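FAQ: What does the model actually see?

It sees only this:
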Amino acid sequence: MQIALELVPKALDSFLEDSEAYMDNFPKIIAINIPELRSVEIKSFEASEHLLKNGVAAIPHFRLIDRTLDDLEAKIEKLVSLGLKQVLLISGDPPIDIPDFVPSGVQVPQAIKRLKAKFPQLKVYAGQDSYRQSFKKELDYCKEKLDAGASGFFTQPFFSEGILNQWLEQLEGIEMWIGLSPVAGTASRNYWETTNQVVFPPNFRFDLEGNCIIGRRILTLIEAAGQNAYLMPIAISADKYLNELRTF
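And it is asked to produce this:
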């Protein structure tokens, strides 16, 4: 099992230092995932460029709602020249504070085909979301991305072994980076339930210790399936989460 850690860049130099420290202290962390957030000044492309120039494996996220195919290809080409091996493409949601926002219209399968044609050696991952629509619709969408050439999936976090087992069964043999994220406190719970439509197990504990108990069980399941993990320490420091979760 390999692990990717999501970190949000606030300043390039400290971002590099933090990335190197986490990878040194947790040897199974083999790459840093960099989300593309409107609220963060440093974009995924810039942070990935800085890591790659310093020999740190980066997995940039690109929100397709914000960019053209030509812009996407140009940015990927620059990163590939620096050693980029993997990229994650997501659709992205329109901003709620820009009522006249015009989306690019670029679709994930379309972008996958374009990048795989231009960079056949590049692993192009897509997202998998267990909560946004019915199981069948999401599975069909995953198959559409695979048909377009997707290398595999980065998933939204799983909070239930039962739901994860369903997806491991349906996507057997497909490379998956399975999401884990702590949900501790009312604000965090409301975010996942309201924004992401998550339904938590009835006995789910909304504290760090409880999250890490189920997290360790899910990591065991991931390893047994020969898959990889994707850690997203949202609203909790990465140090605190990794040290509490630590099984690797």
